[in-house]
Specification:
alpha+beta
């Protein structure tokens, strides 16, 4: 299974008054790693959108294990958990880049739509994109 990993240093604007990263930012970090993941496999959001493929978020889950503070550096890992050509699930793991301590885990579920907002099968409509993603399982 293909895993993409990127580093992120917690910024001041991402924190609350206590210097702890606000929970909403982890969802943004999930997206940051998902975009990187798709870029790495040669199937960027930009490329898919130019082809007429839209991939909205259907669901996001996050489990907070421990806090990230201002200026902490975290490693955000994204991996493909499930894919059938119509929907996909990406799994995330955020760990402290120094200690390896698990900070947050989660997932996001997506579907694939055409420009008119209708569900599509990548296997039928874009077999080359289907194969790129399938090879990550």
């Amino acid at each position: 299974m293909k895993t993409c990993s990127c580093l992120h240093k917690a910024q001041y604007y991402e924190t609350d008054q206590m210097g702890i990263v606000h929970h909403s930012n982890y969802i943004r970090w999930f997206e940051e790693s998902r975009v990187e993941f798709l870029d790495e496999i040669g199937c960027s959001y930009k490329k898919m959108e130019e082809m007429g493929i839209i991939s909205p978020v259907l669901e996001v889950q996050a489990k907070y294990h421990s806090m990230v503070h201002f200026e902490d550096t975290v490693r955000i890992e994204a991996s493909l958990e499930n894919f059938n050509g119509i929907k996909m699930t990406i799994q995330y793991k955020i760990t402290d880049a120094v200690t390896g301590e698990l900070r947050t885990s989660g997932l996001s579920r997506h579907c694939f739509l055409d420009r008119n907002g209708k569900p599509m099968s990548l296997k039928r409509s874009f077999p080359e994109v289907y194969e790129l993603i399938l090879n990550c399982l």
